[in-house]
Write a structure and sequence with these properties.
0% of the residues lie in helices and 49% in strands. It is an all-beta fold and 125 residues long. 33% of the residues are buried.
Amino acid sequence: QVQLVESGGDMVQPGGSLRLSCRASGFIFRSYGMSWVRQAPGKGPEWVSAINPGGGSTVYADSVKGRFTISRDNAKNILYLQMNSLKPEDTALYFCAGRLAGYHTGAYRAEYDYWGQGTQVSVSS
């Protein structure tokens, strides 16, 4: 059974940091490009970041570039998102998603092979 399970979401103050994790099981994680996608209340989904299967290539949305870092541990089947200098506009439900080979910058569930259940990040003073 394929599973992507996100964790690490929390409520933090502006300027704070969080690290999200996404544990994968049931598929060959190291063969899949992985992405983080977020959805704020009342808004459409926004692609955040992506990493290729080997972990050597990453890409970021302009809104998070320089503040967020995506990484993966293929030995442990875990995807990470280190989020620094958090802003109130980063408040959203964060999803991890996987697509076979390469990496993908889409924001919609239908564009991916696998999709997690999400973890909530709230940034507020």
